[in-house]
């Protein structure tokens, strides 16, 4: 660890074992590009893809479980009480101890539902940066979310204007905008040879047009049902269309219902369902169009950005940060209101009808996405945030501000507590248990002896066993004499 740099402790809300979510990817990217400024320590609730990737990048990893506060995303009347009850959760003391013993100069908590690390850090007087990746649902209880986030944070980083909008003018903590980026070295337009190889693996012919859907975990909010309805509506007039769906089922009932719709559509042979791929960028290379039909207001839209960086036309619902991304990259004309399945179908059909527009949109997307959301732009925006911290909170960037806290172990009384009256009862209980075990043992021996005896009936076997026991007892007495 570089002693000339301060320590930044980053808390991830999840650590999935089979796939890695957009929020996990963003936290990993943030860790990597904060490393020049801080000694980064990633804390995750368990081992998974996130911790594996972090260790490979040389990031220190710690494992600590803690509960999430989902009411911060979709608030209700019990939110303040639930937030206070976190202090009574068994994991709260463990998180406080972990932070105290590690002594970071700054704590970052990832996603709005990850409230416990912020509360724990604040209890120790450590500054908190809260990274918001979601669009908070607004209702009559949203003020409670803002009060909690404002009280337990010193700075808020939002990944989009849509995610930041609910905070603007309503909290005292400063807010910075840091839109996502991704590993652009791996995400790019692939050669025709790679594309043909991937399409061959998916059993796609030259004349087929591949329409793709990708989600790490599939549940109703990710719009698979809407994608399938769009696809089925295209099938009668578009025999060249094939549909590839990549993602694991998070809601199995919903996923099975989607499979049933495909099965009874009469077009089952045109669909492929792939639970997981090791290299998602290779799947993008096989696609002709990517569809992102998210039914909720997304904080951003990492899948859409990845598709654009791979040079693919993207059609999407204009929901939250996803709609914001579509407009900022010049794809606003390919975004339709959330739930408009026919609108999706029309946009896809329009691109298929104009091969030149299809190709040009892919070229445009790769260039624009790289210019607006490439890693160089991300680094520049991060440097701007660091300059703001140097101006307003220079001690955040100075190492050794805090010493590890020493937590006293529970004191052991010099004398045993005065509950001697219970000792005989405990002894009697132990004696009863011992007697019970002896009885069970003897009964098992008796049953085994009876089963093994083929020559004698049960009564004779019992008589023989008693004689054997008497002889054994007599021998023991003789030894004692």
- State mean pLDDT (0 to 100 scale): 88
* Alpha-carbon distance between the two ends: 73 Å
Would you state the CATH class of the largest domain? Alpha Beta
What is the name of the CATH superfamily of the largest domain?
Glycogen Phosphorylase B
Beta-strand portion reads 5-15%
Radius of gyration, whole Å: 32 Å
The CATH architecture name of the largest domain reads 3-Layer(aba) Sandwich
Q: How are strands sequenced across the largest beta sheet?
A: 3-2-1-4-5-6-7
What structural class do you assign from the helix and strand content?
A: alpha/beta
CATH topology of the largest domain: Rossmann fold
Residue runs with pLDDT of under 50 for 5 or more positions = 409-424
Number of helices: 18
Total DSSP E strands: 13
Main sheet properties: 7 strands, parallel
């Amino acid at each position: 660890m570089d002693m000339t740099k301060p320590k930044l402790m980053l808390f991830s809300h999840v650590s999935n074992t089979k796939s890695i979510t957009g929020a996990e990817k963003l936290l990993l990217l943030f860790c990597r590009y904060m490393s020049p400024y801080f000694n980064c320590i990633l804390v995750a609730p368990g081992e998974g893809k996130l911790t594996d990737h972090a260790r490979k990048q040389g990031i220190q990893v710690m494992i600590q479980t803690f509960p999430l506060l989902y009411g911060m995303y979709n608030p209700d009347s019990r939110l303040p009480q639930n937030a206070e009850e976190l202090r009574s959760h068994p994991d709260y003391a463990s998180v406080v101890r972990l932070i105290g013993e590690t002594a970071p100069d700054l704590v970052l908590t990832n996603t709005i539902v990850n409230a416990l690390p912020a509360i724990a850090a604040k209890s120790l007087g450590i500054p908190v940066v809260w990274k918001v990746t979601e669009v908070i649902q607004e209702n009559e209880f949203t003020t409670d979310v803002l009060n909690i986030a404002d009280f337990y944070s010193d700075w808020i980083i939002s990944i989009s204007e849509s995610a930041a909008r609910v905070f603007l003018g309503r909290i005292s903590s400063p807010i910075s905008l840091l839109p996502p980026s991704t590993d652009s070295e791996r995400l790019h337009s692939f050669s025709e040879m790679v594309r043909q190889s991937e399409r061959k693996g998916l059993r796609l012919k030259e004349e087929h047009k591949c329409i793709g859907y990708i989600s790490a975990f599939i549940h109703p909010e990710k719009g698979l049902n809407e994608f399938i309805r769009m696809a089925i509506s295209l099938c009668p007039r578009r025999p060249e269309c094939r549909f590839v769906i990549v993602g694991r089922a998070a809601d199995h009932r919903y996923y099975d219902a989607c499979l049933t719709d495909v099965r009874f559509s009469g077009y089952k042979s045109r669909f492929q369902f792939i639970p997981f791929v090791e290299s998602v960028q290779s799947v993008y290379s096989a696609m002709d169009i990517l569809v992102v039909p998210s039914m909720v207001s997304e904080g951003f839209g990492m899948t859409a950005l990845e598709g654009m960086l791979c040079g693919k036309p993207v059609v999407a619902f204009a929901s939250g940060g996803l709609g914001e991304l579509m407009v900022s990259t010049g794809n606003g004309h390919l975004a339709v209101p959330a739930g408009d399945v026919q609108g999706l179908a029309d946009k896809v059909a329009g691109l298929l009808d104009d091969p030149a527009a299809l190709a040009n949109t892919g070229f445009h997307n790769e260039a624009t996405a790289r210019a607006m959301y490439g890693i160089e732009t991300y680094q520049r925006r991060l440097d701007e945030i660091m300059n703001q911290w140097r101006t307003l909170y220079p001690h955040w960037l100075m190492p050794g501000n805090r010493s590890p806290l020493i937590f006293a172990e529970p004191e052991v009384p010099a004398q045993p507590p005065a509950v001697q009256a219970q000792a005989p009862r405990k002894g009697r209980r132990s004696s009863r248990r011992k007697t019970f075990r002896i009885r069970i043992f003897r009964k098992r021996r008796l049953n085994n002896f009876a089963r093994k005896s083929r020559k004698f009936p049960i009564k004779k076997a019992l008589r023989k066993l008693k004689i054997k026991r008497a002889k054994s007892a007599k021998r023991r007495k003789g030894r004692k004499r």
